[in-house]
Amino acid sequence: MGLSSALASAMSGLRANQAALSIVSSNVANSQTPGYVAQTPNQIEVTTGDFGSTAKTTGVSRDIDSYVQNQLRTETGGSGYADQTANILKQLQNVYGNPGGSGTLETALNNFTSSLQALSTSAGSSSAQTVAVGAAQALATQLNVTTKGIQSLRSNVEQDLGTSAQQANAAMNQIADINTKLQGLASTDPSAATLMDQRDQAINSLSKYVDVRVTTDGSNQANIYTTTGIQLVGAGLASQFSFTSAGALGATSLYNTDPAKSGVGAFNIKLPNGASIDVAGNSVVSSGQIAADLKLRDQTLVQAQTQVDQLAATMSSALSDKTTAGSTVSGPPAGFDIDLAGAQPGNTANFTYTDSTNTQRQITLVNVTDPAALPLQNATNANPMQIGVNFSGGMGAIASALNTALPGSHLTFSAAPSPATATTLRVTDDNSGLAKVNSASITKTITSLTSGSPQLPLFTDGSTALYTGAITASGSQMTGLAGRISVNPSLVTDPTKLSVYSTSPVTPTGDTTRSDYLYSQLTNTVFSYSPQTGLGSASQPFSGSVSNYLQQFLSVQSNASTQATQLQQGQSVVVSTLQAKFNSTSSVNLDSEMSNLIQLQNAYAANAHVMSVVQSMMTTLLQAQG
Q: Where are the alpha helices (DSSP H) in 183-243?
């Protein structure tokens, strides 16, 4: 029995050596195969019931560091996000151009203000008037071109969403298909190792587009979720992204959670149970290229458009709007009268008052002629607070609406008594001593080139309409204004109106009142800007001249592009480091395989020698018995 056991052990050793040799051969052959994970044989000792034991190969193990692999997938998603963000922001910088370069907003605005200054210096010469109109047209054109550039980037990002959805779907389908093939196979099965390599490659591809969290159950099924918990793959079932393009996007093409109101492509995920989820509205993904595309399309580039729209709106209003202080009502009760006659849709009346807590508050009364746009939305305890009413509705209706909208303010709104006009609104305290009206004013858009005032409707919304800040159910007139702004055609026809602001009496020759005013409004007058531009906040909005504002948002965008590039480079280093760390433990090491090959060669020779010795001993034994 001893010789038989020795022979069985030697034969099992040869079989184990052959299995190990096959694995070494496979490792060497696939040393350059992407995604291949080095394998090692699983060998166990089997008792023979006698002296010694045999060896048995039960399968293979993949030399994989799961912790590093999960880290690598997380950082791959971060890299996909950083790459796409840096790429688009770099292109946005190209749209804005280099500071001081030709064909930029900064240069166009500087040329326009310089032409206004030259117009005053030349005492309103006709050539200077023509140059100034031309500079205004160049500025309007540059705003139009900038808008086209921004919306082109949004359209490109929208198109990339469709491509990314297809790539992610292909990866998820592949993972689910491999899960099905792995059902019933042990993780140590040699054929399972190859399938798991392929599955890991598919998961790695998926992690470029979305953030993934992978769990593997006892039956070797990979279940994949986003970090927000949405299941992408469950066993043999895969979710599917669906994208319906909206075509080329414009400045008014904005995302809305209501599909009927949304102006961008619908991006949903359909779960295996048939449920469909809005990816953007439910923040399904937080990393990867798809997350970057959604943020760029719906937030980053929309904010960039808002910045140039705000520039166009402020510039237009700065030149055309006239603010008139209210008439004092001595009281008691004390307050002010303001005349709303001639106010255009979007024009505003402003009141400031001190409330019972000694806090100064501001109310902005907006002329809203579209009832579907009412009421205007305000944040909790907003200051200033916007209230929309139709100025043509009569003072009684306006006063009633304001008194209803401001309960507990200790303010009283009413139609001003005679001899005030029928379009005059009065605001006073309620004579309780708990509030004090500090100021009131009305801002109206001047519509005539020769109103007798230096204000000038120099820019228009499109070919003829004036920009007045109108608010309708479809949104604010400011949205997309930079793409529509142009120079008032009446001014293009008659550039002398850059100097002539009155026909009765006629503006004297050489009078620079209007050009001085226009120049000052663009370079010196301080305005506040919407926090939706990304500058300042609702409580502390950014304030500055038009030139200051332009420089500020260009600087912010430049810094954002620089930071995105730095993040991209840093993320690339992290991914490369983790990949190298993963490869060091999971990829084939040819030096180690050659060393293993020598060991196998020696072990094979030793087992063969044992068999030869056993055969010799058995022959001797048989001869002795014969």
A: 190-209
CA distance 175 to 200: 8
Using a 10 angstrom Cβ sphere, with 0-12 exposed, 13-18 middle and 19 or more buried, the burial of residue 531 is middle
Amino acid (one-letter) located at 109:
L
Where does residue 427 rank: exposed (0-12), middle (13-18), buried (19+ CB within 10 A)? buried
CA nearest to 521, candidates 461, 454, 452: 454
Q: What is the DSSP string of 423-434?
A: TEEEEEE-SSSS
Percent of the chain that is helix, strand, coil (3-state, to 5): 50, 20, 30
The SS3 of residue 356 is coil
Question: Cβ distance 20 to 585 under 8 Å?
Answer: no
Q: Residue 447: helix, strand or coil by DSSP?
A: coil
How many other C-beta atoms can be found within 10 angstroms of the C-beta atom of residue 505? 7
Cα 144 from chain centre: 22
User: pLDDT tens digits, residue range 126-166?
Assistant: 999 999 999 999 999 999 999 999 999 999 999 999 999 99
For residue 524, pLDDT over 60 is answered with yes
**Phi, psi dihedral angles at 534 (to 5 degrees):** 90, 0
Across the strands, what pairs with 415?
A: 425
What is the average per-residue pLDDT within 279-307?
96
Q: pLDDT tens across 571-607, in order?
A: 999 999 999 999 888 888 888 878 888 887 888 888 8
In 259-356, which ranges are continuous DSSP H helix?
288-295, 301-320
8-state DSSP, 296: I
The Cα–Cα gap between 318 and 423 comes to: 25
Query: Residue 551: enclosing H or E segment and its boundaries?
Result: helix 546-586
pLDDT tens profile 178-197: 999 998 888 888 888 899 99
- Quote the pTM value: 0.89
